[in-house]
Amino acid sequence: MNLSVKGPGLLLWIVIGAVLAVGFGSFFPEAALRTELLGVLFLNALKMMVLPLIITSIIVGVMSLGDVRRLGALGVKTFLYYMVTTGLSVAVGIGLVLILQPGVGFSAFGGPLPEAVRAEGVYSIVDVLTGLIHPNLVQAAVELKILPIIFASILFGTAFTMLGEQKSIVEQFFSACNEAVMKIVHGIMYFAPLGIFGLIASRLGSTGGGGAVWDLVVQLGKYAGTVVTGLTIHGLLVLPLILYLFSGKNPGRYFLHLAKALLTAFATASSSSTLPLTLECVTEEARVSNRTAGFVLPLGATINMDGTALYEAVAAIFIAQSYGISLGGGELVVIFLTATLAAIGAAGIPEAGLVTMVLVLQSVGLPVEGIGMILAVDWLLDRCRTTVNVWGDAVGAAVVDHLEGTEG
Ligand code: ASP
């Protein structure tokens, strides 16, 4: 069997790993718990590569632009794409939750607030903005706060282009580092079938197997169904249409190229941890230029989260419905805006969206305790929205690359 990273062989093994994991975790939950080590090793290997990858790929990407003005043009296109698609996904979510009304008749009970939400306290728009510049880059790196690292990498990349003679030395150095990083990612990918197996099986096992997951889904079925339907519409209709219209690429083929990254996103529930594979798939398989992908994907993994934005809006309105609070047009607009901001502010790590949802709820005076209600299914929805987040970034890379005229 063809086992090259680029061919279908490895993908097939990853799919087999994921399917076996669902079966194993559903029927043998206790034994499945013991597969956790496989998942943790895979996840740690990916996380290990995130910082070197972001720093080198952004510096190389920005330097290959050559000129600060071109960085501006690339930046504007990228932000426009992020904003338009995130806005569309929130609109899909709000439309669906208003039509399906999953919260009406659902007896509201505020469960305990998750630890992460309690620890965060108030989360405001100011937090989103100040998250961009961190006084201590090492601390930001330790806490895996990606945005300040991206910001600093863009600054350094830009400064390096102004160096005159020394510029080419720096450029060669970072290109070599970037290539070395990608080689390691390449190697880690061979471990993906086992890693994904471990991540999914042990998660199902810790919930108590297939029966317990099914009970959860039934209990919060209308809410979970609304989120998943919204994600499906956005991921399988809206984004493919945008991909086709603005890059001319065949969405089905592009989806297949991205399949390894998307399955990893589902297994890890983390856009940042998936980033090494997203970059690999987008540049190696879908042949988007390194220059564009190196800029659009790392940034997208932290700020472009279509799935999270959609989920934030649906969850907030679901909470309002189940408390019997009716929301006016103005409040819906506020939810639209804050859901977008909350998605931008959410880190690309598991359950980050749950924390930033405080911003959405507080902006329209909804009870934060409502988060306790949706907690039980969040780990599952997190995986679904992360997959759409990564898919949105990948589509963005292709679209911006086409608009920049740099595709391979
Ligand atoms: N887990 C998501 C991600 O990494 C963020 C979220 O919690 O919505 O993309």
Describe this structure in words.
This protein has 408 residues and is mainly α. The chain has a single domain, classed as Orthogonal Bundle (Proton glutamate symport protein). Helices cover 80% and strands 0% of the residues. It has 19 helices and no strands. 51% of the residues are buried. The site of aspartic acid has 16 residues, from helix 18 and helix 19.
Proportion of helical residues: over 70%
> Helical region count?
19
General form? globular
In the CATH hierarchy, what is the class? Mainly Alpha
Structural class: mainly alpha
Q: What fraction of the residues are assigned to beta strands by DSSP?
A: under 5%
**What does the average pLDDT come to?**
88
What is the annotated CATH architecture?
Orthogonal Bundle
Q: Could you describe the largest sheet, including whether it forms a barrel?
A: none
Q: What are the secondary-structure elements, in order, as H or E?
A: HHHHHHHHHHHHHHHHHHH
Compute the CA-based radius of gyration. Answer: 21 Å
Structure at a glance:
This protein is mostly helical. The chain has a single domain, classed as Proton glutamate symport protein.
Note the main attributes of this structure.
mainly alpha, 19 helices
